[in-house]
Design brief:
With 529 residues, this protein is α/β, with parallel strands linked by helices. It has helices at residues 2-32, 67-76, 90-100, 114-122, 130-136, 138-146, 148-154, 171-174, 183-189, 197-209, 229-238, 270-284, 297-305, 364-373, 377-385, 403-406, 412-417, 433-436, 445-452, 467-493, 501-513, 516-528; strands at 48-53, 78-83, 106-108, 164-169, 178-182, 222-224, 246-247, 255-257, 263-265, 309-314, 327-329, 349-357, 391-393, 399-401, 429-432, 460-461. The strands form five sheets. A six-stranded mixed beta sheet has the order 2-1-3-12-4-15, sandwiched between helices. A four-stranded mixed beta sheet has the order 6-10-5-11. Helix 2 (67-76) links the parallel strand 1 (48-53) and strand 2 (78-83). The termini are far apart.
């Protein structure tokens, strides 16, 4: 026994210098990197290097060579060593990093999802940021004062803030698809712009039957297509009262939020059934792309670039090659009961997890202030437009990309992606019209919003769910997702008869048995907090 006590004493004595050395090293590092007063730059009084984890999107050059980071290092005194897996391997690498504990100092560009934030926030892997926001992050604090709903959107059920968002305060950019109609086809066939669902269907019939593209082949037109089947349902559903007010729950789940804040997932409603009836008629008459359940994005854009598409919900038609200028937005058609909703609107909080700090970060105040720079006008302008080598300041104070940027031979997004992280989405900042409108110059996109603005849904981002709620949500949706996708396809294609009361009642009862109302309650609780 005495021998064991002596051995333990020796072990403790041996560990004390190690602990002192480890603690002393961290203290010296912190001391060596002094901080300047809040609101001044550089942030640190001597150079500091952090480890960052980002995502190499297809449009990007190597992050280490980007002009944005060179500017930030010069401005803040902070250099970043980057790990940037490609988009195909990002989730696997992220999960490995989180599981191994070999963490970066921070993640950027929406690498973590909501469930990650809750799980790793609650276990201490992520750093809570609210005290930094209040004390040393004036730009982000000002954002929360201007947009109070943002705080609720990024606050976890435990009351902490573990991630910072991408916020967009420019309506044309939050409308992620516009109702684009081929005006060349309309003129060729002498058709009037459709204003109702019946008129819209008749226009599609004319496109199908009358060689609308004028190439001599009356069978190659696709009257209506979309990236995928559920994306088309957003627009069709709006003519029948189906709403997509709640953002971030999955494209196959339309959900209304009434003026009292009550959530209703609409899959089992009369409105949804009427929309599916109309969709099925379009499909079975070959008025909507019969490959819409299986085609890829490349297939979709190839159809547009081939001059075969009459109507499509699309952000902008640049990828339709020489046919891009053939399209213009229309006012969304009105349904038989007067419903007229254009269900393609993103929430102001466009991405909730753009920036996240981890527990290994020994320079948290410096990093918090580095984060805060993104939410300044200077920072957001740099993320979106880099510097004045890339844009001109007009006499009215607005910004305009230089011609060599817009006309870059490798394409605008690929060119910008060599210099900044904005292409591909998820970048942090407060993006206003000043930053977003220049990217629309030379396109009709700024006029599209005039057609759709009166008909947009509420666009409320679902709140963060607790670990138990997220776990139960995943359990429900693991089966429900598949059932909804398969049964929706069966109704549309005619394998199931949507007009059969027995079939519809079976659908409703199965949804209830699989937990639709419980899922609804989880989402209700998330936005009530």
């Amino acid at each position: 026994m005495r021998t064991r006590r002596i051995a333990l004493a020796i072990l403790v004595i041996a560990m004390v210098p190690m602990a002192v050395m480890a603690g002393g090293t961290q203290q010296r590092t912190q001391a060596e990197v002094g901080l300047t007063p809040v609101g001044t730059y550089p942030i640190v009084t001597s150079p500091l290097t952090l480890r960052g984890f980002g995502r190499l999107d297809p449009q990007h050059g190597q992050w280490r060579d980007m002009t944005l980071w060179q500017m930030m290092e010069e401005r803040t005194g902070i250099r970043v060593e980057w790990e940037t897996p490609g988009i195909d391997g990002i989730n696997e690498r992220k999960n490995l990093v989180l599981a191994s504990g070999d963490l970066p100092d921070f993640f950027i560009k929406g690498i973590l999802n909501d469930s990650d934030v809750i799980r790793y926030g609650s276990d201490g892997t992520l750093v809570a940021l609210e005290s930094y926001i209040d004390e040393i992050m004036p730009n982000f604090a000002a954002l929360l004062a201007e947009f109070p709903d943002v705080r609720g959107s990024i606050t976890a059920p435990d009351g902490r803030i573990y991630s910072l968002p991408r916020v967009v305060d420019f309506l044309p950019n939050t409308v992620w698809r516009s109702p684009l109609l081929n005006m060349v086809w309309m003129e060729r066939l002498g058709l009037d712009i459709p204003t109702t669902s019946d008129e819209f269907r008749n226009v599609l019939r004319a496109f199908r039957d009358q060689d609308a593209n004028g190439n001599g082949n009356p069978n190659d037109e696709i009257p209506f297509t979309s990236h995928n089947a559920f994306m088309a349902m957003n627009g069709i559903g709006g003519m029948f009262g189906v709403r997509y007010d709640l953002v971030g729950i999955g494209g196959q789940y339309p959900a209304s939020v009434d003026n009292q804040g009550t959530v209703r997932i609409m899959l089992d409603t009369t409105e949804y059934r009427n929309a599916v009836r109309y969709y099925a008629q379009l499909f079975q008459e070959r008025l909507i792309d019969n490959d819409i359940f299986t085609h890829t994005n490349a297939d979709y854009f190839g159809k547009g670039a081939g001059g075969r598409v009459g109507f499509t919900p699309l952000y902008q038609p640049r990828n339709f090659a020489q046919f891009a200028n053939d399209y213009d937005a229309i006012v969304p058609p009105r349904g038989p009961d007067g419903h007229q909703i254009w269900n393609y609107r993103e929430a102001t909080v466009a991405h909730r997890t753009s920036l996240v700090m981890t527990r290994v970060n020994a320079h948290r105040e410096a990093t918090a202030r580095w984060f805060d720079w993104f939410y300044s006008d200077e920072g957001t302008t740099a993320v979106m437009m880099v510097n004045e080598d890339f844009y001109d300041v007009m006499p009215d104070g607005s910004l305009r990309y230089k011609e060599h940027v817009i006309e870059a031979s490798i394409g605008f997004e690929n060119f910008m992606g060599e210099h900044t992280i904005f292409p591909g989405g998820g970048a942090p900042g407060l993006f206003r019209g000043k930053h977003m409108a220049p990217g629309m110059m030379g396109t009709p996109m700024l006029t599209y919003i005039e057609k759709t603005q009166p008909y947009l849904p509420k666009a409320i981002r679902v709140g963060l769910r607790s670990e138990s709620e997220s776990r139960r949500e995943s359990e429900i949706k693991s089966d429900l997702d598949i059932y909804v996708e398969e049964t929706f396809a069966a109704f549309v294609t005619g394998r199931l008869n949507v007009n059969s009361d027995a079939e519809w009642e079976r659908w409703r009862q199965t949804l209830a048995r699989m937990g639709l109302r419980e899922l609804e309650a989880i989402y209700q609780a998330s936005i009530n907090r």
